[in-house]
Fold this protein.
Amino acid sequence: MNQIIIEKTNQVGQILQEKDVDLWLTFVRETSAGGDPVLPLIYGDAGLTWQSALIFTASGEKLAIVGRFELETAKNTGAFDRVIPYDESIQPVLLQEIERLQPRQIAVNISKNDVMADGLTHGMYLNLLEILEETEYKQRVIPAEYIISALRGRKTKGEIERIKTAITSTLEIYEHAFAHIKPGMTEIEVATMMQAEVEQRKLGYAWPKQNNPAVNSGPDSPVGHNAPTEIEIERGHLLHFDFGAKENDYCADIQRMVYLLRDGESSPPPAVQKGFDTITRAIQAAFAALKPGVQGIEVDNAARSVVTGEGYPEYKYATGHQLGRLAHDGGCLLGPAWDRYGTTPYLPVEAGQVFTLEPGLMVPNYGYIGLEEDVLVTTDGAVFLSPPQTELILL
Amino acid sequence: MNQIIIEKTNQVGQILQEKDVDLWLTFVRETSAGGDPVLPLIYGDAGLTWQSALIFTASGEKLAIVGRFELETAKNTGAFDRVIPYDESIQPVLLQEIERLQPRQIAVNISKNDVMADGLTHGMYLNLLEILEETEYKQRVIPAEYIISALRGRKTKGEIERIKTAITSTLEIYEHAFAHIKPGMTEIEVATMMQAEVEQRKLGYAWPKQNNPAVNSGPDSPVGHNAPTEIEIERGHLLHFDFGAKENDYCADIQRMVYLLRDGESSPPPAVQKGFDTITRAIQAAFAALKPGVQGIEVDNAARSVVTGEGYPEYKYATGHQLGRLAHDGGCLLGPAWDRYGTTPYLPVEAGQVFTLEPGLMVPNYGYIGLEEDVLVTTDGAVFLSPPQTELILL
C-alpha cells in the first residue's frame, strides 16, 4: 500500500461530482513501456500488462479490471474496492460493468493540450471504440482532461511534504556547489560536482541528468534545455543554474544566479544588477497575481510585462508550470497565448497547486539571468515553499 | 552520441523502402511524462518538451523539428542530418517540410495491437490532424506499426551484445541464489537476497522490482505477475523463479526451477519429473519451430500442444515474447489466437529478433513449473543466447 495513492484515489469521487461526470475510465496495457502518466497517482509503479481498466465513479466506486496474473498486485495497491480478473478478453467484463453502472459519460484520458491528461494512445482509443461498438456508450466517450488536471494539480498533504523535502535537498546541493566553484572550472565540471552530491544522497533527477543541472557561464553559453559545455567560468561572467532533485517520487525545480566579481569589483556592474532586480521584481509580480480563480495567462503577463517594461526582449517560454511528480506536471500553465501552449494558459488556478515562477532575460556581454522559485497556491494566495533568492550570489 | 541510436536510425531508410512507405513521423511532446516507446531507439533519453517531429524518409533523410531550447540536445544525438528549431508553433515549419517532401504516406505511431508501436496519444493525433487540416496530407496518415516492429525487432550487433551481457548477469545472480537458499526462508527473503545482488552490481530491473524476481514456493503460491509472499520454502516444494536484470538499457528474462528434496528422496517424485520434462520438451519444440517466415502462432502451438498433449491444462499466456530494451519488447508474439493479443501472433518471425520461450504448467501438491530461455532468430533458425536449463536443480 502506498499512502499517496490512497490520498489521491480518495480525491477522485469529489472531483467527478464537481465536474458532473459519472465515470472515469483509465484504459491501458503493457504499461512497462511507458504507460499513462496518471497511473502513478491511481495505481502506482507496478505494471499492468494486458488491457486493463481502472474505473472510478462519482458515487465513489473504485474498480479495477486486470489480467488474472495481476489480480494480487492490483488488490495490494489498496486503492480499489473491487478487482475483477480476466483471462482471454477484457471486452465482456468491461462491457458488463459499464452496463451495470449506466454512465451518462465515460471520461477517458484524452487531451490536446495537457500531456499529463493524454495517456490514452490512439491505438487504445480505437480498441475502446471497438469494445463499445454496438452499444449506446460509444457516443458517451468524453475527454477526462479536467478531471486529471484537478487530480494532479490539487496536491495532498503528503505530496506537499514530499515536494518540500526535494526542495530542501536541492538547495543544500546548491549551497555545496556555491562553496566549491572557482574560476577556471568548466560548466561540465560544476555539473558533475553537483551530480555527485545527488548520487551520494541517493536522490533522483527531476528531469534527465543530461541537462540537470543546466549550467550557463557567460554570454556565449547556449541557454535552454541544453547540456553543460566545456565553457570555463570566468570573472565577469553571470553564472546561471537550473537544477532539481527528485526525492520520494516528487520534484524540485529551482534556478539560481551567481556573479563572479572581476578584480577590483565589489559589486556587480549596473547592467547586471538591473537585470537581476528586474527578474526578482517579475517574480514578485507573478507571486502577487497568483491566487485561486485567476487564469495562468494573467500571472504570466504580470511577470512578462515587468521584463518587457524594462526594455528587455520577452522570454520565449512560460513564466511558470506546475510541479509535482514531474518537473513539468501539466494542467494550468502560467504562460502566454502562444499556439504551442494550447488552452493551458486559460485554465483557472486552483488552491493546492504548486507552480514554478521562472522569468528570464539576457544581459549582453555578461550572460543569462533566470531565477526560479517553487510556490504553493493557498486559498489566500501564493506562498513560497523555500526562501526566494533576492540578492545575486557574489563569488 | 549514443552508438545504439546511430545503429538503429541507420536501419530506418532500408525498412521504409522495404515497406514501401515514403515518410515516418514520430510526433511527441513533454516526453519526460513517459513519451513514445520508440524514442529510446531514435532519439535517446533526453526529453523533448514542446511539440516535436522526428522525420525519416525512404530516401534516407533524417530530420528533427524541435523547440529552440532543445536544438543543441537534438544535434548532439548524432542521429539527424538536420535539426530545425522553432519558437512559437511547430505548424508552419512542419507543414513546410512535409510540402517539400511530398510524401505519398505519412506513417505515424499508431497500433491497436503493439504497444511499442502505439506511442501517438489520441490528443496528439488530433493535434496532427489539425496541423494537416487543409492539406491533402491529412488523408495520407497511416499507421507505422510494421515499420516500428521491424525496427525494434531486428536487433543490431550492439543490441545483441547488450542482451547477452544482461543474461550473463542474470544467470550469475541465479547461481548466487541457488548457493544460499535454505528451507525455512520465505519467498520475500529469497527475492530480497537476489535484489541485493542486483543493486550491488548497479544493475537495473527488466520489469518492476516489486515482482522481479517472482518467487513461487509450493502449490499455494500465487503464480503470475505477483510479488513474492511470506510463504516459506519447504522440502517437497517446487521453487519457481522469474527474474531479469537490465544492463546498459537492455534486458534479460529467465525462469528457473528448483526442487527441494524431501528427507529420503534422491530424485524428484515422478509427477514433478514428468512436469519438468514436459516443459523442456515444449521449449525444444518451440525452438525447433522458430525460424524466419513462420507466424508466432505456429511456434506457440508447437510448445502448447506438447503441454496439452501430456494432459495438462493449457497455460493462460503466450509461449514467448520479444525481448530487448524492454522485457516485453512488442511486435510479433509467439502466442495463441486470443482476443487480447490482437494480430501480434499472426506476424511473421524475422531474423534478428530475440524471443523468450516460456511454457508452464501446475503440478498438483508440488507447485508451478515454468522455464524461460532467451533465443535469437538467425537466418538458419533459433540459437540459445545462454545454456537452457535441462535438469531440475535439486537442493
Observations:
- The two ends of chain A are 48 Å apart (CA to CA).
